[in-house]
Amino acid sequence: MKILVPVKRVIDYNVKPRVKADGSGVDLANVKMSMNPFDEISVEEAIRLKEAGKAEEIVAVSVGPAKAQETLRTALAMGADRAILVQTDDEVEPLAVAKILKAIVEAEDPGLVILGKQAIDDDSNQTGQMLAALLGWGQGTFANTVEVGDGTIDVKREIDGGLQTVQLKLPAIVTTDLRLNEPRYASLPNIMKAKSKPLDQKTPADYGVDTAPRLTTSKVTEPPKREAGEILEDVDTLVAKLKEMGVA
Amino acid sequence: MKTLVWVEHDNAQMKDATLAAVTAASKLGEVHAIVAGSGCQAVADQAAKVAGIGKVHLADDAAYANALPENVAPLIADLMGHHDAFVAPATTTGKNIAPRVAALLDVMQISDILSVEGDKTFTRPIYAGNAIATVTTSDEKLVITVRGTAFDKAATEGGSGEVEAVSGSGDAGLSAFVSEEIAKSDRPELTSAKIIVSGGRALGSSEKFEEVITPLADKLGAGIGASRAAVDAGYVPNDYQVGQTGKIVAPEVYIAIGISGAIQHLAGMKDSKTIIAINKDEDAPIFQIADYGIVADLFNAVPELTGKL
Ligand SMILES: Cc1cc2nc3c(=O)[nH]c(=O)nc-3n(C[C@H](O)[C@H](O)[C@H](O)COP(=O)(O)OP(=O)(O)OC[C@H]3O[C@@H](n4cnc5c(N)ncnc54)[C@H](O)[C@@H]3O)c2cc1C
Ligand SMILES: Nc1ncnc2c1ncn2[C@@H]1O[C@H](COP(=O)(O)O)[C@@H](O)[C@H]1O
To answer: Helices (H), strands (E): how many in chain B?
Structure first.
């Protein structure tokens, strides 16, 4: 089985995003960028399935600017076999990403596509579900544990009340949650090796996908600020405050 | 505009998360609801009483019992032939289903809205809530998920909607429900709790979490939350996680104990009315947003607090 892993280049999760003064967006100039953390979990899961003999090949895909090559090289250094960059400087919305991924799925014929549950920049949480709909496949979102069976996959999902297990027919879509695994770091030799792994360059037009956005952002603002309050002397003062608030 | 609201339920009881979605939908126009489930007439009757809901579409079929998106999304996409907007609460169920509906309709979903600014214009959080975007869609049909803490709950009484049975294509044959592990608890649900006591990595073990956090929560009649670090370390189950990628809460009082205040955690709780932090590090970022802080070892301060309440 081949596994397709879409990875997105996003602001590093340790960076506190700053809204531009003119309200046109978030300032990404000179900001550290990394692979979306959920996508690292996807790559790791694909590698584990390959190591367990459940998969033969892992293809990483990114839709984004030329620099997304770095993100793909990270996936290759972790253990993906080859990569496809669908290059564009435009912002591509989840629906259009899903359409590009659908075309790649049709060309590559994977048995499983593992995406992150959410990109930490747009916080959309859509692409995997949309891809599943476009392909007419089953979807196991917010995966905590996956088990590949014979023509099926069991996905234990993190849901509001606890955990839920569903069984999907393969091929299928999985989206990863935080507890699925702990991604490995790429070793130096593997980073070197990744440089010579194949990386194909494409454009959205190669797949006949119109990436014109459906949403326009008129304004980006900072949320209301919270001010630091009071440091209380001792627990007694806190008890008094809680009583004042009427909660104790 | 005619909207269709997803009613969240367990086949017996409508969930509160539905009510914020109803409020958001009513800002767009006429509100209809869809109850998809199995043996769920009672839920349809509850939904019909919600103030503002004009009509309830009831799809009662074994295939809809667990809200599998493969089965439910086509049913909703069909109903969208007669509706202009699909509105779902941004719960794990809503997030699972709505994007699948959006793709079937070839529209972009607008995730996690905070406000309705116009027929096609909304605000929504991006970058873990560090920025709020105002977005306008050019799509004809709308698919929206609603952040529960951003809208008042519609009243559960006062409506007199009619219930109409509908049917869809049932089982798509792509997926099957296997099992569920749902924690039963008498505690208030996190997303509707008035007070939340939340513990972090500093608790050190599930035993300590139970020993230190639970008695305080009991005293206050509070819900219990946690940071990702506490969940990852197995102190508490995954559904306790508050944050960007966990639950979004906004109680009257949020007490963060041994939690540093990473942006991903703040994203889930910074709209709480009053925030109280107990942390031994006076430089912990949580103090920058806390209304009241105590710089102390939690293993002394929390039992003392519990004892004095
Ligand atoms: C993609 C992604 C998504 C994420 N989503 C979330 C999310 O939804 N929710 C979330 O919470 N996190 C999330 N995180 C993780 C987040 O970045 C932090 O790692 C996490 O919130 C830290 O948890 P913590 O505050 O419990 O632990 P730490 O950061 O380790 O803080 C522990 C705190 O306890 C204090 N302390 C230690 N001992 C004591 C003591 N005896 N008494 C008093 N205080 C003490 C320390 O001073 C410290 O401030 C996410 C991360 C990523 C990459
Ligand atoms: N531009 C992109 N390139 C590759 N994968 C993407 C892209 N955008 C989204 N994805 C995938 O879709 C997941 C969910 O993203 P989103 O729906 O934007 O929250 C991500 O974790 C990625 O796996």
So the answer is: 8, 16
